[in-house]
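Record format v2
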Amino acid sequence: MASSSIRFAIVLLLHVILLVQLLPVHSDDEDDHLLQGINSFRQSANVPPLAKHDNADCLAEEIADELEHRPCASNTASNTQLANYQSLIRKCKIDINTTTDGVILPVCVPDRVAPLVLTNYTESQNSGYLNNSRYTGVGMAHEDDWTVLVLATNTPGGSFANKACLLNIITSNHLVSLFLGVFLAFVG
Ligand SMILES: *[C@@H]1O[C@H](CO)[C@@H](O)[C@H](O)[C@H]1NC(C)=O
Ligand SMILES: *[C@@H]1O[C@H](CO)[C@@H](O)[C@H](O)[C@H]1NC(C)=O
Ligand SMILES: *[C@@H]1O[C@H](CO)[C@@H](O)[C@H](O)[C@H]1NC(C)=O
């Protein structure tokens, strides 16, 4: 009896660990505030709010990591060049054909002073993208002085969809945790 309840405890623990790992990676106050600011800007332009987009988030994270050590002076609006853009796309397992209608908006503000970051999006040439209803999803990340937004559309050309891959499907839900649980329940 004792051994079966220990086994049950182990299975339970494993489920908890695996499920915690599968929860959304981060919910960041700074990003949330910026998104609120951008969405009220959109509201005033009569366009629907942007929703968080996981794959765009992944790409924004990779791009922010890339830009991290670049000086702010290279902040020339939206044409910051990334030589390895394709490999960043690949790291996030995104099908590159679903990124062409999206847009990447990096902004560099020393110390990321929040009101300045927001106005760099809403009161610069970036605003023309952010008040546009064709964009529906957003990925956000920040590193050092850089903030990166990746805007996605709800059309195939800008959906930042995953490359078709069976492994993605299996690992993207908690089937793995279930299999492991079932497996352990039968061991011993
Ligand atoms: C993307 O589109 C091009 C041409 O339309 C095609 O050759 C290529 O295989 C596509 N790539 C992927 C990953 O689907
Ligand atoms: C954008 O940020 C820079 C600092 O990098 C600041 O000097 C500038 O005033 C900001 N522009 C807007 C429109 O907010
Ligand atoms: C969006 O911004 C651009 C440039 O800032 C402006 O020309 C356009 O009228 C705006 N569109 C809406 C829907 O507010």
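Strands lie at 51-52, 103-108, 135-143, 146-153.
Helices lie at 2-22, 29-44, 54-67, 85-91, 114-122, 127-130, 166-171, 175-186.
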